[in-house]
Amino acid sequence: MTVSRRWSGAWASSAVVDEGAAPPVPPAIDVLVPTADRPAELAVTLAGLAAQDDPPFSVVISDQSTGEPDWAAPAAQAMLRVLRAQGRPVSTHVHHPRRGLAEHRQSLLERATAPAVLFLDDDVWLEPGTLTRLHDALERLDCGFVGSAVQGLSHLGDVRPQEREAFELWPGRVEPERIRRGGPGFERWPLHNAANLAHEAASLDLEPGDWAAYRVAWVGGCALYRRETLLEVGGFDFWDELPPDHAGEDVAAQWRVMERRGGAGIVPSGAVHLEAPTTVPHRDVEATDVVDLDRLVGSDRPEKPVGADGTERPVDSDRLTTR
Known about the structure:
Elements: H1 14-17, E1 29-35, H2 39-50, E2 57-63, H3 74-85, E3 90-94, H4 101-111, E4 116-120, E5 124-126, H5 130-141, E6 145-147, H6 196-204, E7 212-214, E8 222-226, H7 227-232, H8 249-261, E9 263-267, E10 271-273, H9 287-290, E11 320-322
Parallel strand pairs: 1-2, 1-4, 2-3, 6-9
Antiparallel strand pairs: 3-11, 4-8, 5-10, 6-8, 7-9
C-alpha cells in the first residue's frame, strides 16, 4: 500500500530540500484552516495534522490576525517545516480586510482543488488516524459531508445522558435530510456538547480504527466535504448577506449540503477542542436566520464559485501570499 507521508529518514533527501519538488501523491483532501490571533493553538492544530497518514492531503492556512500572522510564530513555523518535509503541500495567506467567517471560509474554498475539503478550525487537535476515518466514511457513505465533532476532554467526567438521548446511528446509506431550527433533526444539537461523543464511543465498544456514522443537526470545527457538492449549493457565497460579526455560517452551508446529498457525524470523533477562549465574541446574528437556505438546494451550480453579486472576487484581495 502506498503511504503518502514521508518518514523522517527521507526528510533531508534532495527531493524534499528542493522546494519545487512535487508531493509523492496528489492530495485527495485540501485541509482549509482559517485562523486569527491564535498562534499557540494553530501550532497544536498543525501538530495534529503532522500526525496524520493517508489519504494524501495539502494544507491551506488563511490568517486574519490583528498583528503578525499566526503561522509566523516559531512553534507554528516548526510544524509547517515538518509538514513540508513529510511531502504535504502547504500554503499560507494573509487575508484582509475581515468581512466575517463566511467570507473567510469562501476565500479558502475558492483556493481548493482537491476532490474533498476539510474545514478545520484553528483550535482543534486531531488524533492520529482521524483523517483516514473521515475520508473512508465520506467515500463509503457516499454523502455530501462527514464530520468529527470537537470534544472538550475537560468534561470526560461530566456524563450527560439527557443530552445523548437523540443519538441515532445511520442504519445504512446516509440519506438527504432537511434540517431547520425547531424542526425534525434539530434536537440533535446537544450531542456535541462537552465530551458526549467520547462517552457514546465508549458505549459502542468499537475496535481501534473502526467508526460508526450517526445522524447530526450539524458538525462544527472539523467537517470534510465532497467539494463538488459544497460548490453545487453555493459554498459560503452568502457571506455578503451577513454582517461581519456573525456565527453559524458552517451550519447554513451544511444544511444545504444535507438537503442535497446528506451528511453524517462519525464516532469516535478523534477531534479535540483546545478549549481556548473564542475569537468570535459577537454572536448575535445567526447565519441560518438570515440566509435563504432554499435558494440553491437542488439547483445547477457552476463549478467555480463566484461572489454573491455574480462577479468573481479577485485573489489579489489578499495582501500577502507565501509558499
